[in-house]
């Protein structure tokens, strides 16, 4: 297994991309700490990982709260003795994104990443440690009028690269993933409201399909593993070619 005896923490892990990442890391041998405000979904994920032969535990917490993240790190230290992998995956509610709500987006999309990294680094001073920060293709180009959301996602890249300069010499790699449209339950709800939306979006993707949470989970696994030991400060797009080619110009 690629992560045998490793310890991982995933914020926003109870659903969507975070859930798929937590499952994938556990499948590869990591003990996974599930951090989320949704206790029902978080505990259900813990049970599913355990039934599959993996190791995990759920700890309720708001990733934008220094107190809650400190409690998570304390639990990791007490249970596991340290931390090897941190995945920051907290997302804002759709209403906040659509409304460009500056304060809530800053708290969730940016400040939470800063809080988690700073709290985790003292536990990560061991070989092979790494951080994977989930950003978005919105960080790389504009989509609609989600200006503040795009700004926060771009800031995650800047924060990650800057901190990689300080902490990589200490053995902690920091990388970003920028997913395109990933079909989570939130998107499925959108598609139910607008039956033509999925087809319209798919036409924008050169690869001919939208992404799955597992696509992002596989990328996170690679960046968290020793296979990526010479990769830090990098931005990996998992977007089916969306940001590489503008298919709207095709005749």
Task: Describe the protein.
There is one protein chain. This protein has 251 residues and is α/β, with parallel strands linked by helices. It has a single domain (7-249), classed as Rossmann fold. Helices cover 45% and strands 16% of the residues. It has 9 helices and 7 strands; from the N terminus they run E-H-E-H-E-H-E-H-H-E-H-E-H-H-H-E. The protein has helices spanning 16-27, 39-51, 66-80, 94-99, 102-120, 147-167, 185-193, 197-202, 213-224, and strands spanning 7-11, 31-36, 55-60, 85-88, 129-134, 172-179, 235-238. A 7-stranded parallel sheet has the order 3-2-1-4-5-6-7, with helices on both faces. Helix 1 (16-27) crosses helix 9 and helix 3 runs parallel beside helix 5 (102-120). The longest helix is centred in the middle third of the chain and has 21 residues, at 147-167. The radius of gyration is 17 Å and the shape is globular. The mean pLDDT is 92.
> CATH H-level name... which superfamily?
NAD(P)-binding Rossmann-like Domain
Low-confidence stretches: none
Instruction: Tell me how many strands there are.
Output: 7
Helix segment tally:
9
Looking at the overall shape, the CATH architecture is: 3-Layer(aba) Sandwich
Mean of residue pLDDT?
Answer: 92
Which range does the strand content fall in? 15-25%
């Amino acid at each position: 297994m690629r992560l045998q005896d490793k310890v991982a923490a995933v914020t926003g892990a109870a659903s969507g991309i975070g859930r798929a990442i937590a499952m994938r890391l556990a499948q590869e041998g990591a003990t996974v700490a599930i951090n989320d405000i949704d206790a029902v979904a978080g505990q259900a994920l813990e049970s599913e990982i355990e039934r599959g032969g993996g190791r995990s535990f759920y700890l309720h917490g708001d990733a934008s709260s220094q107190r809650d993240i400190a409690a998570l790190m304390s639990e990791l230290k007490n249970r596991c003795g340290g931390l090897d992998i941190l995945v920051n995956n907290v997302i804002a509610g759709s209403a906040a994104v659509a409304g460009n709500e500056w304060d809530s987006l800053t708290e969730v999309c940016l400040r939470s990443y800063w809080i988690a990294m700073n709290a985790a680094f003292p536990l990560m001073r061991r070989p092979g440690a790494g951080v994977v920060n989930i950003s978005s293709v919105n960080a790389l180009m504009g989509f609609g009028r989600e200006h503040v959301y795009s700004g926060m996602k771009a800031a995650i890249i800047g924060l990650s690269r800057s901190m990689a300069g300080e902490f990589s010499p200490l053995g902690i790699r920091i990388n970003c993933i920028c997913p395109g449209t990933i079909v989570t339950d939130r998107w499925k709800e959108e598609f139910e409201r607008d039956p033509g939306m999925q087809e319209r979006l798919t036409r924008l993707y050169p690869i001919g399909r939208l992404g799955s949470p597992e696509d992002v989970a596989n990328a996170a696994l690679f960046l968290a593993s020793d296979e990526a030991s010479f990769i830090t400060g990098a931005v990996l797009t998992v977007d089916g070619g969306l940001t590489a080619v503008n298919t709207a110009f095709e005749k």
